């Protein structure tokens, strides 16, 4: 996979989108159930395309209740045939012949999956199916029985959106306005307040932004990362994003700081893009700028304040003062608690308690440094009392870190954090 800089290829992808949007819409008086059943028959390509367009058009026009009824139908009437599957499984166990395995495999797949595959043959349908899953995820919160359909979406999307299909594009100030508007809208870590704010993140020579796209959705970023090229490891997001900040010339740059990673498509939740995005961007930056020697994040700690307040409530009154003061002050005294939370606190299902830590440590990074007063925005104070953390991607240690984390649950961290972990101020678990 290569970084796309060719105007020709970008224009080609946009042409595909325009063609998809211009494709004629199907209209059909038959019910969604009739169209769904018909879609599974042996239609020719033209007829199948017309039925698919008609069904997608009907779905777009459905009310919330009608969509719910449509999903109910898919969950109950287009599921696997349990008794038949059990019979086939016993037959295969008795005589494991290839034809019996083929029959068993076919029976084990809900008919819903083939419906989604056939719908996806229509130009532009991929984005519509991603939007359809958004509806499903919302409805499944109050109707858990619909979660079986989500397993079908996940199975298909993990194939359709695998790394081999993804296109990495460098987003800059000259990118199409429609893409830039979406970068503003989708930024989920440090809100982009204005076009001037966006320009400060894209235009200077020491700033980069990269996004993954899919050929079937060329105008919709899937995920993007913002990068600051710095002299040394940055430990304060306000400094990184400061208005009027002088840009560093290339001969003073030695560090790439990944300070914001935003997933863009709610309908692709559970499809992992961040791991490959970071690795691909590191490779491209290293190739273009050999002087870069350090690759780190400047990451939020979204679960810290909630954890600390829970611990505060559980501590004996005589022991609450140090933690309470650290939370209130947000200064250096906060760092031992942050280090303890990141390194020592574990999720019930394994791995670090903090979700961002789980992501980066699972990708082979190590906890490099923690910073108090690093994010004084309302969101930063609400989530972590202003603290932030650097995760270091040491290219020579990534594989070893992944293996240690996955097999032993090791939380890799820099030696400089050890003194913080040895302090007595970290609250004991209850």
UniProtKB/TrEMBL annotation:
Q: Pfam families in the record, alphabetically?
A: MCD, MCD_N
Give the record's GO biological process terms.
Answer: fatty acid biosynthetic process
Record domain Malonyl-CoA decarboxylase N-terminal: where: 78-161
Q: Which residues form the Malonyl-CoA decarboxylase C-terminal domain?
A: 164-317, 333-394
Q: Which InterPro entries match?
A: Malonyl_CoA_deC, Malonyl_CoA_deC_C, Malonyl_CoA_deC_C_sf, MCD_N, MCD_N_sf
Q: Its Gene Ontology molecular function terms? A: malonyl-CoA decarboxylase activity
Official protein name in the record: Malonyl-CoA decarboxylase (MCD)
Species name: Tritonibacter horizontis
